[in-house]
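Q: Joint fold for the lines below.
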Amino acid sequence: MRRITLWLMSTVGALVLLFSYRTSTQAPSHDVVDASQARPGPAPADDAPTREPRPAGEDDEDEGRDAEDDDEGGDGGGDGGGREESADAGGTFEGALAQTAQGPVQVSITVEGGRITDVGVLTAPSGSGRHEEINSRALPILEEDALAKQSADVDTVSGATATSGGYRESLQAAIDAANL
Amino acid sequence: MTAAVLERRAWVEQVMGLPVSVHVRGPRPGAAADAVARLFAELRRADAVFSPYRDDSELNRLERGELALRDADHTMPEVLHLCGEARRRTAGWFDARGLPDPRTGRPRLDPSGLVKGWAAERAAGHLAGLDGHGWCLNAGGDVLVSDADGHPPWRVGIEDPAAPGRILRVVEVRSGAVATSGDAHRGAHIVDPHTGRPATAVRSVSVRGPSLMWADVHATAAAARGSLAGLPPGYSGLLVARDGTVTASPDWPG
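A: Joint structure:
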């Protein structure tokens, strides 16, 4: 599970960064206007299920089935043994709910054969246009980011001297935490 | 896939005001716990002697005239000598003298920029006896690794100074150091020793080489200088300029 945990943590981190970035570069009034009551026109995403960003074929997968999926994956990756094998083999993993300045965010990653094949947003801040915007704009960036990190797949990070505050949010902290 | 069966354990402590982590990889990494504890104890001792933040550090008592050099810890003359050596080897671009006091801003002798690498390298000596195990010491972003036979190299990610959390390059290292100096996390704290002003041309410099202390010293010097020109043989660098341009030494391994 270590690698999965790391991926999830860094993916959530990237999403939080995306939100902060957006806040600082766009007029905040945009968000206010976007709030559902302010718009007379129907907002198509209002009643959409929160899991809509999941790709076709993934929709039938419920949280409740994740454990089962893990087992299947473990069997598939079989002969190597060891607890990391089952995590590497595949399944959809959900990250913890993270609070951002814009609201709660929860992401999932789908892993097949030890590689991230998909990144999804399970929970996103409410607001009619919000969800679609995340899907169209943030999700591709997020996915690219997660895939880039995976290809980097580093053991440690060298960077300008971290303060303790900066460390808590850092990739190094995630790597450390995954091995404690 | 043999790499996947290597067990790995990490220990993390806050020492010298830095997050310091030790990762040990091999058949029984947990057996390294005592050696790792000695490593952290060694770092705490160095902090008690050299911290510019602690009123009771030997460095500060020396500065206030309350302690004579001959009565100081035996490592004090060694470090002061190394600071002079570092100044010479970097043509003055690394200079522990006249740096702003971290609390008052007044100019003072602050060997911190050298002590971190020196202390980490020295403390890592406690891991030397771990047969069949490799280790990776990360002291606030400066990395020293050692690999055991048959293990894969350690993959050291160079952080993107413009977006901490993103990896700019990856260097595979079996033995030796990667140190990075820059202003990504603490603001402009690298001083141009020739002007006394913060060095701003560079966002970060990473230096790869056999010694952590010298890699760190040369990274700091290159950041102040704004160029990789002064790196000695055996050391190579990656420089990220203020505008985001990345330059590497011809022999940079990444």
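Q: Anything notable?
A: The longest helix of chain B spans residues 33-50. Chain B has a mean pLDDT of 92.
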